[in-house]
Each structure stands twice: as structure tokens, then as C-alpha cells.
Amino acid sequence: MTTKQDTKQADLQKDTVEINSAQPLTTDYGIKVNNTDNWLRAIMRFDHERIPERVVHARGTAAFGTFKLHKSLSDLTTAGVLIDTSRETPVFVRFSTVQGSKGSADTVRDVRGFAVKMYTSEGNWDIVGNNIPVFFIQDAMKFPDVIHAVKPEPQTEVPQAQTAHNNFWDFMYLHTESTHMQQWAMSDRAIPRSFRMMQGFGVNTFSLVNANGKRHFVKFIWTPELGVHSLVWDEALKIGGQDPDFHRKDLMEAIDNGVYPKWKFGIQVVPEEKQDKFAFDILDATKVWPEDQVPIQYVGEMELNRNVDEFFTQTEQVAFCTSHIVPGIDFTDDPLLQGRNFSYFDTQLSRLGPNWEELPINRPVCPFMNMNRDGAMRHRITKGNVNYWPNRFQANPPAPLSQGGFISYPATQQGIKDRQVSDKFKEHFNQAQLFYNSLSDIEKLHVSKAYSFELDHCDDPTVYKRMTERLSYIDLPLAQKVAKNVGGDTPKKPAKDNHGQKAKGLSQLEFQPSTPTIASRRIAILIADGFDHSAFSAMKDALQKQKAFVFPIGTHRQPVTAETGEKVTPAHHLPGMRSTLFDATFVPGGKHIESLSKNGIAKHWITESFAHLKAVGSVNEAVDFIHLQINLDKVKVASIDGSKVQDSYGVVTAFGSPDELMKVQNAGESAKGFAERFVCRVSKHRCWERELEGLVDGVPA
């Protein structure tokens, strides 16, 4: 039986054709072509096939999926997508970086776009958000300036996709309202491990309106099932050169392998009558709603389960608008949102033309009819002899509220209309302190390193000296550490006393999977001729049962021969791959250790993995090889429950037979066996203790 959900999914694909068929090559007008080498028209077509790239969020990737509601919100809204728990709503989600061009790298330090298009039964609803819940400015009127400042400097057109330059930090200092967002951008949130491992936030304040006409203010949140995880900065820099497509390939790889990324959908709501009860203005996009004051209610789930069929027609032509809402959801007087509602729609006219909402990826899957007729790239053919309302046939009439027509909330207005902001909007430092105070020690360390890197690249003393002074409004030790590193004037006292308050949900280390998992984690196994095949195969099987992605990495890509004669074809060879592109590494024992010990790339692989705080595992003959590369005599060596398995700062080693070592029954903290202990360490994402205790380079004094 065909369901409504099946019909919606089919509608999204009704313009899709398959090129891998016997269909001959034709011209655009259907004539079969018999000679492609002497076809001048193809060049003419090629000369005109580019469209303008997005001014911001140019670099992105996307996937299809579904949204399911678990808890009806009928007490808050009339929006069917937030009421009907029997629905399965198709979605298209695009992730992106903000500042770089289409050709920039995935792993730059930047805010990430997190835009969700829901093809609901009432029309398209776009939640156009970021992986950070706040923004640099309060009013959209400043948006051209902040983007001009963050883009490459006009006299040189450098640097690409970086904030580490004079103009950006000059703008940041001169706009104190950016102070809170700076902290987020300098935190680990700006260098995510994966699009699948970052939160999404609607950023702006919207309204929910119920059947009785009562309004609640609302924020929208997506929280990943896999937890919130990041790269380390040295790793992010290297991946930018080694594999600039790292994040988009990561998303496609997970979906292709059936490990579908999922996010919990949450809302924060404030009744209209309580909007003035907070120390901050709830319409200010530079402020969060702290969870201890406005709890998150998780009411649904989104899963991405299908990769795009063609990048240009789907990922590149998809267009999101904050103004795309459905009945039961409405706007607010958030000044940033008001500007976005105009700007997002307007920019699509430049990129895609006036009929951009008719493109297959953008059009709704519910019935739609309007009076649009003309304009470039018009797709739809509408029969009939009227294109206006009212008309003598009563054709295409407006829909009243009772038939699902959209009605704006009749908000009460009072006072004098003027271009001003409230005193709450003018307070710019309390939440910057709140964010920094709420971070873990390792996250605070990374914030100081990020500011130090960014301001070190500013060559105008006015810029970096003023910015280090500004940090004393947040935390004096932070300001002093950064000033020392970048050459600023060391502040002697805080410019503003730190209030010492903290809030739940600001540290990303709070977001860990409910049960340990290594699903979709990329794990390398290093092998050379003479490796122990039984240890290799047992470990590979154990990891794959946990849904990890396992990659044999050999000294060459032709089959590698084990001690006992078995052959394994590596996924890559050492000169063609780097440790930065994997979450963990395992080295089996065997005679191949003699070869690996003479291989500079293999040795660096282990050293670099340790420096990037990743789990490293080895057994039998490989144990000494691992210890030698990372100089483990500097650190403590602890056995687990007196067994032969040792776990020293995430370096897990053992001696014994593969049958004994590779069983995985318990991957939690009490894990005793080698494989289960290694799985536990990988599931933690990083061994932060190495950096905190000075076991890796680059820790500021």
C-alpha cells in the first residue's frame, strides 16, 4: 500500500533520471549526437553553466532524510509537523562553512551552517541555523560590514576562509556585542570532527501560536546522537591540506555504510507573558537562553539516510529562507531575524532567478498554486485564463484560517516607534563570561590557544593589543596568557569582574552518547609483510561488529603477506594517507614490526596520533614499537584489574593470543580485555589528559 510518506519521497525524486543506461547522448533539444569531438555547441553551453556562488555559506554539502515527532506540541502550536506524531516528514539538510569560497577547505576554523528544509504537508519549513546558538551582531543592518570584515582583505584578497587577520579582529573589537560569539568561535565548536557530531541551532527567536491564539517564544535545537566532538587545531590545519573535502566525504561515507546520523530535535519555550522576566532580552541573537532558566524539551528526531544524486541540482541549487514558515509558527521582532527574512529571499533572486522556488529541490511536495506566471527559468505550466485575484471564476482563492491559511500573530504594540535598542541589548559581556566559565579545563586551554593563533597572525599592533585588553572583560588569566603569546600589553587587573556563573549545555563535553559507541569511527590498522594475520583479522572483526569503519594501511597497496601466508589488500599505502584522517590506530604484532620500525611515515603516524590525543592500540611484538615512538617512559603505565592489558593515557597494549584479546563484551569504564578497552578509549573521542598534563607539545606555560 502506498502511504502519504511514500508519495512525498517519490515527489522529491520525480525529476531524477539515471545516466547509467542505454539512452544515447542527445542535444538539449533531443537530437541524438554521433560525434562529440567536433561539437562546437558543447563549448558554448559550457561557457554559460556557472551561477554565482553564495556570498556566505558557499562551501557546503547535503543529504536527504526524515523527521519524526515523538511528542505532540498541540498545546503550543497548530503546525501539523509539530502536532502529528504519525507523520514522517522528508527533509533536506545542508551543512556549510560561512566565510570561505566554494573551493576552500572543510576544516577551517569557522561557524558551520546547519540548514534544514522540511517538506511538510502544509508547505516548506526552513530552519536556517548554525552549529553555534548566537551571532556576532544584534541587527541585520550590520551584516554587510561583518561579512566584509571576515572575508579576505580587499587590497590583497587574502587570507582565504580565515579570521586570523587584521580586519576581522578590528571589527570584533569595535563591536562589543560580538564578544560572546567570539568565545564560541574560538572554542572547539568551530573545528568540528564531523558534521554528524555537531549541534544545530535556529539562532533566532521565533513564535509558536496555538489554536487558542496564545503565543510562546521558541528556540530550535538539534543535538547529535553521536555526541558533540571536535578536531584538535593542529589536526584541522593538516587535514585542510591533506583532504580538504574531509567533512563532506565523512557524511557520505557514513550514509553509504548505513550508519545514519541522527539528531534529537529540541525546543526552548517562553510564554509571551514572561518575555521580560530575564536579565537578557530573549529577542537578542547574541544571547543564549541558559538551560537552567529555560530547559530544552526534546520532542523529535531527524535522520539523514540518503546522499544526493547530483551535487549541483540539489546541494548547490537548494535555497533556504528564514521566511519559509508554516501556519502555527511565526516571526518575532528579533532585529536580526527581520533582516534575514528580507535578505535570504533577495539573494536567491541573484543566484537562481525569480522562479527559484520551482526548482525540484526547492519546491514543496504538498499541492501548491499561485499567480506567478512569467520570469526567467519558469518551470511550471499552469492551464487556465486568469492569473490574478479576485477573478470572475473564483479560481485560486485565498484560504481562511479554518482551511489552513497563514495568519500572522496579532501582537500588541505600544510605545514610540524609534530605531533604538533596550538596555538589555546593550549589555555585552555577562554571557561571554557565562560561556567561558562553563567550559572544561581542556576547552578553556583551547580557547586561549585559538586566540593566540588568530591574533599572532594580525600584524597591526593596534588590533592585537586592543583585543587582548578586551579579553580582560571576560577572564583575567585568559587575557594575560594571550597577551604574552601575541605581544599585547599584559593587563594587571580585570576590566570587568567575572561573575563566576556557569550554565548547563555550553561545554560540548557534556554531550556524549548515552552508551559508548564507535559506530562510524575511522580506525586504521598498520601492516607490512610479516604481520600477525590472526591478530589483524580478529581485531578487524571486533571493530566492525561495533560498526566502526576499518582501513588496513600498508607499506604498499598491492597485497601484503602475513607471517602465515595470508594476503590482505590495504585500503591505502602509508605515503598516500595520514593519521589525521582516522580516529584511532591499531598495530598487530608479527615480524612486520622490523619493517615498520624502519619506515619514517609509520613512526610519525604513531607520534602524530599520540600528539592529537587519539587512542592507539598494539599487541605482542608491536608494543615496544609503539612505546618507542611516543616515549612512554615519561608517563605512568597502569594495568587494568591486574590483567596483562595496559592502558596508559589512551595507549592500550597487551600480550597474549588474539582469541583472548579481541573479545568485546563490555566497552565501558570497567572493561578488562584488550579490544573492549581499546573500544572504550576510542568512544571517548580523545585522551584530553595528555594535553592537560603536558605530555604533548604546544601547551602554553
UniProtKB/TrEMBL annotation:
Cofactor dependency: heme
Keyword field contains Hydrolase: no
Reactions the enzyme catalyzes: 2 H2O2 = O2 + 2 H2O
GO CC aspect terms: cytosol
Enzyme Commission designation: 1.11.1.6
Active site: 57, 130
Basic and acidic residues bias locations: 490-500
CDD domains associated with the record: GATase1_catalase
PROSITE patterns attached to this UniProt entry: CATALASE_1 (PS00437), CATALASE_2 (PS00438), CATALASE_3 (PS51402)
Segments forming domain Catalase core: 26-397
Pfam families linked to this entry: Catalase, Catalase-rel, DJ-1_PfpI
Span list, region Disordered: 485-505
Function, as annotated: Occurs in almost all aerobically respiring organisms and serves to protect cells from the toxic effects of hydrogen peroxide.
Name of the protein this chain belongs to: Catalase
Lineage: Eukaryota, Fungi, Dikarya, Ascomycota, Pezizomycotina
